[in-house]
């Protein structure tokens, strides 16, 4: 599961836990109150719900399908509120619970289900409440309903705004944490996340997955000659030029400094070599322009593939890295795609 979904789940798990404690304590309290008032239907529902809350508190940390568990819990929870509101023995104060529905729905079910759940259950709550008002005082009833309806609407709007900002902020934070600020490319953390997904996909569908490690040649000289600022521009230029050559499904990442990696889903070793070669060619064809003159850049690359070079990202990175440094030793500005080639370079005295 991607990390950001896990974070969202953690947030919802905490909210649900808090609600379960409230319904456990509330259920026990109202069980006693309803027993004392001889309201057997509600007493049974309340003690039953306290039991369900206790059971859910025990399993909540182990459950995988939190969304399903939440929905199974909320439907009877809201229904009990409505039943309680409709009973002649209960007070109108039960409507206070109806007003918590939008907050509960948005925090536990997210924006879309939060909206639908709020409209549905607050609507039914208002309708049920209206049935209990004396028919003869229509104007007073209208004022009461307008107050409760508007207050519920305000809670719903605030809950919607809160959840929307929370989701957007969370998205922004995740994006910042997984993006390299200078080039706008994905970073190492994102590569790990995507690699796991693509590896599972490749194993399930028996498709290929390759990784190209790319290192800019003599990058230090660009910094030394033109300054760090031009060095930064060169890195951004490199990212732009190479991204244009890749497919939308490929993941181009900056690993740090002048080292990059490209994850190529559905790409066997031979094709990955061709792609690495075309990246090398493209960079040579599109030098960075500084004050009207070209700053030539070249790259060295190593290719590794799932299966033949290992099963984990670490293994693939190690193999691709080894081949990149073989390419450097062989004179730079080239691609080394397999172990034979790397060993042949290593065997040359130098
Ligand atoms: N401008 C700029 N330079 C960086 C950045 N990150 C790393 N560098 C520089 O990249 C250079 C890398 O130098 P080396 O590791 O010697 O590699 P190289 O000069 O590319 O040589 P080879 O890899 O052997 O071809 C260093 O001078 C770093 O300061 C960055 O974000 N911006």
Automatic annotation (TrEMBL):
Residue ranges of coiled coil: none
Catalysed reaction equations from the record: 2 GTP = 3',3'-c-di-GMP + 2 diphosphate
Ranges annotated as spanning the membrane: 14-33, 39-59, 66-85, 91-109, 139-162
GGDEF domain sequence ranges: 207-340
Entry keyword annotation includes Transit peptide: no
Region (Disordered): 329-350
One Pfam entry name: MASE6
Keyword Membrane attached: yes
Enzyme class at the top of the EC tree: transferase
EC code: 2.7.7.65
SMART domains in UniProt: GGDEF (SM00267)
Keywords associated with the record: Membrane, Transmembrane, Transmembrane helix
NCBIfam families: GGDEF
Protein name per UniProt: diguanylate cyclase
């Amino acid at each position: 599961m991607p990390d950001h979904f896990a974070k969202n789940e953690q947030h919802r798990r905490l909210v649900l836990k808090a609600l379960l404690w409230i319904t456990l304590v509330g259920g026990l309290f109202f069980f006693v109150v309803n027993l004392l008032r001889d309201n057997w239907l509600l007493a049974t529902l309340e003690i039953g719900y306290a039991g369900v809350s206790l059971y859910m508190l025990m399993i909540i940390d182990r459950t995988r399908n939190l969304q399903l568990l939440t929905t199974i819990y909320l439907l009877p929870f809201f229904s009990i509120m409505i039943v309680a509101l409709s009973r002649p023995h209960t007070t109108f104060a039960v409507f206070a619970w109806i007003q918590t529905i939008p907050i509960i729905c948005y925090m536990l079910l997210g924006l879309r289900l939060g909206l639908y759940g709020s409209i549905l259950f607050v609507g039914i709550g208002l309708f049920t409440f209206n049935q209990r008002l004396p028919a003869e005082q229509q104007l007073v009833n209208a004022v009461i309903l307008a107050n409760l309806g508007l207050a519920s609407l305000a809670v719903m709007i605030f809950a919607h705004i809160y959840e929307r900002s929370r989701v957007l902020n969370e998205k922004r934070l995740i994006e910042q944490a997984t993006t390299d600020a200078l080039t706008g490319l994905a970073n190492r953390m994102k590569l790990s996340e995507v690699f796991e997904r693509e590896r599972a996909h490749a194993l399930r569908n028996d498709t290929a997955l390759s990784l190209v490690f790319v290192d800019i040649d003599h990058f230090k000289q660009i910094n030394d000659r033109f300054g760090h600022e031009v060095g930064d521009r060169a890195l951004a230029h490199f990212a732009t030029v190479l991204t244009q050559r890749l497919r939308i499904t490929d993941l181009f990442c900056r690993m740090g400094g002048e080292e990059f990696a490209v994850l190529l889903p559905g790409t066997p070793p031979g094709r990955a070599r061709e792609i690495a070669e075309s990246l090398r060619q493209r960079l040579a064809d599109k030098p960075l322009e500084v004050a009207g003159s070209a700053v030539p850049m070249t790259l060295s690359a190593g290719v590794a593939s799932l299966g033949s070079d290992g099963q984990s990202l670490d293994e693939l990175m190690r193999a691709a890295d080894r081949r990149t440094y073989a390419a450097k030793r062989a004179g730079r500005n080239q691609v080394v795609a397999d172990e034979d080639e790397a060993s042949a370079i290593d065997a040359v005295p130098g």
